Amino acid sequence: MEESGAISRRLVLKSIAGLAVASEGILTAQRAAATAAATAAPACFPQPAVTASRSASGPATRTVEQTLDVRFTDVDIPGYGPITTRTYNGAIPGPTLRVRAGDTLRLTHVNGLPPNPPFHHGDHNTPHHANSFNLHTHGMHVSPSGDADNILREFAPLTEEDAALGAPEPRYTTTICVPADHPAGTYWYHPHLHGSTAEQIAGGMAGVIVVEGDIDEVPEIEAADDVVVCINELKLRDGEVPAFTSGSWVTGVPSVFTVNGAVNPAIGLRRGEVQRWRLVAATAFTALRLQLSGDDRYLTMHQIAQDGIGFAEPVARAAVVLAMGNRADVLVRGDEPGRYELRADGVDDPLMTVVVTEESVDPPMQLPAALPPGRPFLDEGEITGPDREVVLHVDPEVFDGAFPNAYRMLGSNATPPADPDGDLTRDTAYGRFDPEYVNHTLRLGDVERWTVRTDETVPSHGHPFHLHTNQFLVTHRNGEPLDPPVWHDTVGLAGGAPGDSVTFLVRYQDFTGIALAHCHQLHHEELGMMQVVEYVEP
């Protein structure tokens, strides 16, 4: 398997269970934030606002309704200071959306951003339309079509002409029908309009989705505080997110890491107490190898789920590795009193501080010995479709202008070159995202084997691979089998000599439509390291 003084969760859920959360605009969002803050678990540690389902006449009619209001907002980042950035409902991160399998998630999007420039000078694989967005429910097995998890939609702002006439701000609707057998776990949402994704997520546009279910009812987990730990990576200069105008933007603009909108917030943990942390890597450019360390001491993280899929039993970790977009659910138990820090390799400052107090829980809280089955494994004997290969490749300094590097996805069904007889290293189309070209046609019901690798030679240059709509079972890393294999929707690939490779099995289920496979280092995705997949009837 890959290395990778509080109010209880029951009280939190009781306090929100009766809410009719049909949010309409910022005022309602602020009320929801105040309610969540009043019941935050644990005390003093920041938690996002919470929106939960309401039931009008039984489980069949459960729905979650939330308005996501997007506009430039002045936000105070505790530990950093004031910034101006695009937000969901005036906060970083946006509200946490809690649903159950079988629920309907109905979102109203208000675009209060300024008009986009009328023209984009450049190809589609360069940043553009920074004030348009849409919505992706990252990791969820839901429809990619219509008004659901459809990344081809555009939620545009007013045009300059309409703004001058005083037209109302545009509103858009997303309706997600969560399947009745959807795995319980931790997911997240973020914008995914090609050309604007990186700048918006680097400004804090992200939020957590919790699908509640069987794993939450395990007695040892139900007794633990349920804590969202959403890690954002903000690109800030002079209190703003500068426009993504050149290839040097990622390295030239400092990253500020926040947890639930604060720099290095502190959380309390009593000796013998167990908390459940939902770790979310809402980072655009940086992978996180996380450790909990103090003065020559460590706190063990007992991982119970990866990317929303539960393990068979907790796995003790000295470190948990999260690529950009990954999530991990972990149980943390207070041990020796003292201060510990959640740190990530390569990040100078701690992400958060943990204070284990002398106060103890008697008897100490226990860890579960076994967990409900998350998803059954696939077997190579079930393969019915072709093998596929994807190579994540960069040709440096081959283009003129502000974005000289070519980010490509090669291997099976790469996007064809503009000039097959020319220099492919300088070809503007070869292996780069083309929204009109279907790279992979995937038949419902098929099980296929993919091998994804990077030919990067620098270890720090990573390419996390993400597939929309269907989770995949990683069976091998660098040719070595994993025992047991691990379900993912995003898997990190570091460079090296050679670079990392993974092999996975995937079954395409339930939903037809256009979706994406891409690198989740969002600089690379924005500049073309992305492919179109189409799920079709058999």
TrEMBL record:
> Where does the source fall among the domains of life?
Bacteria
Q: Name one Pfam family in it.
A: Cu-oxidase_3
Gene3D superfamilies recorded for this chain? Cupredoxins - blue copper proteins
MF annotations from Gene Ontology: copper ion binding; oxidoreductase activity
**Keyword Iron carried by entry:** no
Which of UniProt's keywords are assigned here?
Answer: Metal-binding, Oxidoreductase
Q: What is this protein called?
A: Copper oxidase
Q: What organism does the record attribute this protein to?
A: Kitasatospora griseola (Streptomyces griseolosporeus)
